[in-house]
Amino acid sequence: xxxxxxxxVSDPRLTxxxxxxxxxxxxxxxxxxxxxxxxxxxQPMFEGLGKGGAFGGGAAEAMWRPVLVNEIARAIAEAGGxxxxxxxxxxxxxxxxxxx
Length: 100
Known about the structure:
Elements (H helix, E strand, L loop, with lengths): L23 H24 L10 H21 L5 H12 L5
Helix pairs in contact: 1-2, 1-3
């Protein structure tokens, strides 16, 4: 008898252990946490920029620069981030008994 070219679908080597999809509120909270962490990491980088240029300096720039940094961090987190949200979701799933 000829052996099949592909293993049968019931082959345990082909199954993956997938975790259930997280609650959307939990996923959103994890992304928000990642955005906050990224904002804290990006803030010193933007403080090193000189005053003037595109922003022009002054009180308005000092007031709006943190908003800009937080929006950049939020955009990075919403676009997939750097993996902080994934780790938070994995840990919260483990704490709730759903993780590995």
